[in-house]
Amino acid sequence: MSMKLYPLQFEPILKERIWGGTKLKNYLNKPIMSNSTGESWEISTVENDVSVVSNGVYKGKSLNDLINEFPEAILGTTVYAKFGKQFPLLFKYLDARDDLSIQVHPNDKLAKERHNSFGKTEMWYVMQADENARLILGFKKKSSAEEYVQNLKNKTLLTILDTKTVKQGEVYFLETGTVHAIGAGTLIAEIQQNSDITYRLYDFDRVDANGNLRDLHIDLALEAINYETVEAQKDYLKKENVSNSLVDCRFFTTNIIPLNGEVKVNKSQNSFTVYMCVDGSFEMTINKETFQYCKGDTLLIPASLTDFQFNGQASILEIYIS
Q: What three-state secondary structure class fits 118?
């Protein structure tokens, strides 16, 4: 049986976080019900957090079920050959009302050995940032496990970490091992490997609603950390109506399309493509059928769907696997 091909959207998986706020509702129109929603998982196959289709004939089906039924049609020939029926990426929007914990993610080797998981290489596109919002990105200068542990013990870790003031439209690529934190006042689109493995290093001594400190993973992090300095920010072109490269790594390729008018797309069947609308609105026309999208929408284009057209004024992230 062949798959009916159309852009797939999914019910957002909303996550309450101690640092979350209301921007997912106010800026992206997500159906949050609290004042502390930190994450909207847009496309996920993480265990116990598997996305469910929200539109079209497959509404109510899980992404895993669709992949099991139509693996090559959805994933693409190259992705299926490499990953089997496993969806390799995770897509999110994050709202940091308060600072996130300082954390690090393990690489594929450590994650496989310790958790039977992928590592967590990720990238951020800044959708909105309050004045003086900041990110923590690695060390100011080359460090060591000993220096890190001593500063952690003395509660002076922030003095050796590099901090950057952040603005809308900036892009950051975080290889595994990079110590990092999203600062208060930042709304971010995140693309990452399909992993939920995070080692929390420091949480500013915050307590939860029950007065408990959150767990730290200091020993696990020691081997995972890259103690060299990093340059995470990525400069990029913004040429209208074409795909401008943001990040091109072995885990994913991300481009941005500054859409102003009409763009025709013809792509290969090697990989699925995900589009995240990070500003504006647009129409997509496929097989004479038109779909409407706006800021905060995320859609999965099955690999077998190769020809379509955009029309509108928008900034669109385009993600696939090379």
A: coil
